[in-house]
Design goal:
The protein is an alpha/beta fold. It is about 45% helix and about 20% strand. The protein contains ten helices and 14 strands. It has a nine-stranded mixed beta sheet with strand order 3-2-1-7-14-11-8-13-12, with helices on both faces. Helix 3 runs antiparallel to helix 5, helix 5 crosses helix 6 and helix 8 runs antiparallel to helix 9. It is globular and about 55 Å long.
Length: about 325
């Protein structure tokens, strides 16, 4: 999981990473003191355990803005935000660290009235939506650039504006994709569950965890390939998903783990997306359900597919912090 747009995610997202991911990463500032303060105690503990991986690559996001088309779209979006800022000023309550970006981008933000340089600090104060838009626009390419042969980084955020930018402001042609709701098959511990309990559950029930994740990864992969028949894909995987989800929940209940179901969606860029838009089953919602209460909703949604060597992992997750499912 590559969390963005901040360095440290909320506790819910940390729990999500511990239960369903091999590790969590975020892009950190170069300055050691700023980085230490941004990481916080929970991530510091997970770093000692080898689970959290700070990515302090110099200007990682800046290198993810490579072509004129991409920067042109970002520029257009920034002008839209600037017009709204002029009409109804929003506070500069977010920060973009200077080590991640080029001087030209900082200069543009200041010139447009979307930010101000902070004296004595390597950062620019901006509006929250500006930060989410700029970082979100680069998130998927930054994840692809950081990915190696043995590790794939998948962008994950809890900010809707950042997720929209990741889907729609990346390079490439806007095409049809899918937005898949996985919340009911990926439950989270109730608020107040200590980190130690989540780690203990992960270690004790590794088999159940891997079984569930294999089913989810197979679902997303099949939807990418057989994008014209989402209902058939879900019907084929119905038993595998429902049994894996039921076993996973039962394992938690046996340890008195109280589960909470949040809305968690993943944007799926489709294989062969240049033609996918004309073969999707309309721009309407397609709903299919696994057995019992483990419903998975699949809706068509626009996304710009990446053209990289790791495009088989072209997904982007959105954690809806306030949306609880029954």
């Amino acid at each position: 999981m590559l969390y963005y747009p901040l360095v440290s995610p909320p506790v819910e997202v940390i729990h999500q990473a511990l239960l369903y991911w091999d590790g969590i990463a975020s892009v950190t500032p170069l300055d050691r003191e700023i980085r230490r303060a941004a990481i916080g105690p929970e991530l510091a503990e997970l770093r000692e355990r080898g689970f959290y991986h700070p990515m302090d690559h110099h200007r990682l996001f800046d290198r993810a803005l490579p072509d004129r088309e991409f920067t042109g779209r970002v520029r257009t979006e920034l002008h839209r935000l600037a017009a709204r800022q002029a009409a109804a000023p929003a506070p500069f309550d977010a920060y973009i660290n200077s080590s991640k970006w080029s001087w030209s981008l900082e200069e543009r933000l200041v010139d447009l009235g979307l930010g101000t340089r902070l004296p004595g600090r390597w950062s620019v104060a901006v509006t929250a939506e500006t930060a989410q838009t700029v970082i979100g626009a680069a998130a998927r390419l930054a994840a692809a650039e950081a990915s190696r042969d043995t590790t794939a980084y998948i962008p994950y955020t809890d900010r809707p504006a950042a997720h929209r930018a990741a889907r729609e402001l990346s390079p490439g042609t806007l095409a049809g994709g899918y937005e898949v709701d996985l919340g009911r098959v990926l439950p989270l511990p109730a608020p107040g569950t200590p980190l130690s309990a989540v780690l203990a559950f992960r270690e004790r029930h590794e088999d159940e965890r891997h079984r569930l994740l294999r089913a989810v990864h197979r679902l997303l992969g099949e939807l990418r390939r057989d994008y014209a028949h989402p209902a058939e894909v879900l019907a084929e995987l119905e038993r595998e998903l429902s049994e894996a989800a039921a076993d996973y929940r039962a394992a938690g209940s046996a340890l008195r783990m109280a589960w909470r179901t949040r809305l968690i969606t993943v944007a799926v860029a489709l294989a062969g997306a240049a033609t996918a838009a004309t073969t999707l089953p309309g721009w309407a919602t397609v709903t299919a359900a696994t057995a019992g209460s483990y419903a998975i909703n699949v809706a068509t949604a626009p996304i710009r597919p990446l053209r990289t060597r790791r495009d088989e992992h072209d997904f982007a997750y959105l954690h809806h912090a306030r949306a609880e499912l029954g």
